[in-house]
Amino acid sequence: MERLGLKPSRKLVTVVLTGAGVSAESGVPIFRGPGSLWELPEARKLAARARPPWNNRGTWEFYEWRRQLVSRCKPNPAHLVIAEMERYFEDFTLITQNVDGLHQRAGSRRVFELHGSMWKGRCPKCEEIVDLPETPLPELPPKHSCGTPMRPHVVQFGEPVDRLALTEGIKASSKADLFFVVGTSAVVHPAAGLPFLALERGAKVIEINPTETPLTPYVTLSLRGKAGEILPRLWREFLSKEA
């Protein structure tokens, strides 16, 4: 942290933004690039049956397959460090583009999910969001208590992100002292704009990603590699400098 000119303190307003790269290190297939979900024949077959309004059996068969796959994955060291950071800082916000729930399984309690969660369903009639933690589900599609078939509470392509998560993300980014961008390509908006709000505020922005991104030229510090290796090392360094 000396490289950033920051004195370690619990009072630093801290934000972490995570993307698919963090989950990929736990074995969750990503949507873009080598090793993506679409390289799996079963994924392509099931996804072809998923269609609007997203509360049909075909959509849920695809998501139930993904839910069972994710249920076999475990949080990695990056997830665990982020959960520890939440317990350490007095003002901490975690914003994620991931829908797999691995942050919660690692111990994070206050998670703002921009793209929703595969472990929740939403009633298209009353808009109530319902936790669906069990897999396999006993019924496809699962029904709301009002009898309406629910859709997965996951943002589909072309749909707006979760309003509350975005509002909290903007609010936190605009007052941040320290901002971590972890495992994201920095091309999907509106998430990609949040680090720039922090930079405008004067925050120190740290990017951790295997490759360069459009954000790289602007950040305070950009580190190449796996989040599960780099973030724990950074965190140990931070704690060792604490007064």
Report the principal-axis shape.
globular
Bin the helical content.
Answer: 25-40%
The number of distinct helices, counting runs of at least 4 residues, comes to 8
Radius of gyration (Å): 18 Å
| Low-confidence blocks of residues | none
Mean pLDDT: 93
CATH domain class name of the largest domain: Alpha Beta
Q: What name goes with the CATH superfamily of the largest domain?
A: TPP-binding domain
What is the number of strand segments?
9
Features of the shown structure:
243 residues, alpha/beta, Rossmann fold, SIR2/SIRT2 'Small Domain', 2 domains, six-stranded parallel sheet, three-stranded antiparallel sheet, 17% strand, globular
SSE layout and pairings?
Elements lengths: L13 E5 L1 H5 L16 H7 L9 H15 L5 H12 L3 E5 L5 H5 L4 E3 L2 E7 L6 E3 L19 E4 L8 H11 L4 E5 L11 H8 L2 E6 L11 E4 L2 H14 L3
Parallel strand pairs: 1-2, 1-7, 2-3, 7-8, 8-9
Antiparallel strand pairs: 4-5, 4-6
